[in-house]
Amino acid sequence: MNKALKNPLTYIAFIIPTLVLYALFFVYPVIVSFVYGFFQWDGITEKVFIGVDNFTRLWKDDVFLKSLANNFYFMAFSLVVNIPLVFLISILISKVGRMRDFYKSAVFVPVVISTATVAILFGVLYNYDSGLINQFIRLVAPDSWAREWLSDPKLAMLSILIANAWQNIGFFIVLCLAAILNIPKEIVEASKIDGINGWTETWLITLPLIRPVLFVMLLLTVSGTMKVLDIVQIMTNGGPFQSTEVMSTYMLKVGFRSMELGYGSAIGVTMFILILVLTGILQKLTKHEEVQY
Question: Which of 167, 146, 172, 134 minimizes the C-alpha distance to 235?
């Protein structure tokens, strides 16, 4: 066994299958999308080279610009609402002495539920006639207060954001909670001796020490919200009136319904570049460094 581990061929044998799969399912599709973005093609007839026309067309397309704005709306909501909520809940759970494992499991349950199930579940809750939300509103308020949550352009995106938050914050809570509980007790005890406790301890001790985990959460949030697809596709399919359209749903409609594969590829390439740029900017702004206890 030791001889095998010292042999470089052993490591190559394990690495090559992974590299092949990575190249086949990631590198190749990205390269092909870049190439198709320079062509006008319906997937059947001969491709016609049109240069950068697909990419310049994007910035004149009102639907694409609206979908791009919706992606940024998605990201802003997640950064401003979800991340602080995750941190708050994690702090509260970390302070609990009894049943902590129960609370950790409870908040993580939505994460293991498929997005399709979550979308259907919230679709039922948002139903105007029989949905639990409107039924509760009718019990405590006039019937006129009930809303068409997924059919109202002013409420549809917010309704999706709430459903998405309910499903995903559990993962971030467990991640953040693990970092909080990993802080050495000696540091916490020393801060209490110095008279630091309560929320002061949270801001001055806990928050700086879990900074690397918060950075990971920010990266995952930015990349995830820029490529969000499934929950929007199932709940509203981009409607009503493109009020919930995001780049991924618009890419599918353009590429596979309108059969403009070249233009759809240009949208996909634009998404890819935006994610790279945003994550790069985030890395520069946060200046992520490993925390030494």
Answer: 167
Is residue 29 one of the residues assigned to a domain?
no
CATH (domain of 116): 1.10.3720.10
Are 153 and 241 in contact by the 8 Å Cβ rule? The answer is yes
Mean of all residue pLDDT scores within the chain: 87
| Token pair belonging to 164 | 């998405």
| pLDDT (tens digit per residue) in 27-67 | 898 899 899 999 998 888 888 999 899 999 999 999 999 99
Average of pLDDT values for 191-212? 78
51: left (phi over 0), alpha (psi -120 to 50) or beta: left
Q: Is residue 36 included in any domain, yes or no?
A: no
How far apart are alpha carbons 289 and 271 in whole angstroms?
28
Beta-carbon count within 10 A of 131 CB:
20
- Nearest alpha carbon to residue 159 among 188, 113, 119: 119
Of residues 22, 31, 19, 61, the one with CA closest to residue 268: 31
| 44-81: b (≥16 Cβ within 10 Å) or e | eeeeeebeeebbeebeebeebebbbebbebbbebbeee
Identify whether the C-beta of residue 33 lies closer than 8 Å to the C-beta of residue 54.
Answer: no
Q: Which token pair is 210?
A: 């879990």
96 lies in a domain? yes
The Cα 281–Cα 30 span in angstroms is 22
- Dist CA 281 CA 75 (whole Å): 15
Give the confidence band of 182 by pLDDT, cuts at 50, 70, 90.
Answer: confident
Percent above pLDDT 90 for the chain: 54
pTM assigned to the model: 0.87
Supply the range of the domain harboring residue 187.
Answer: 64-286
Q: What angle do CA 245, 250, 253 make, to 5 degrees?
A: 125
Q: How many domains does the chain have?
A: 1
Residue 11 lies in a domain: no
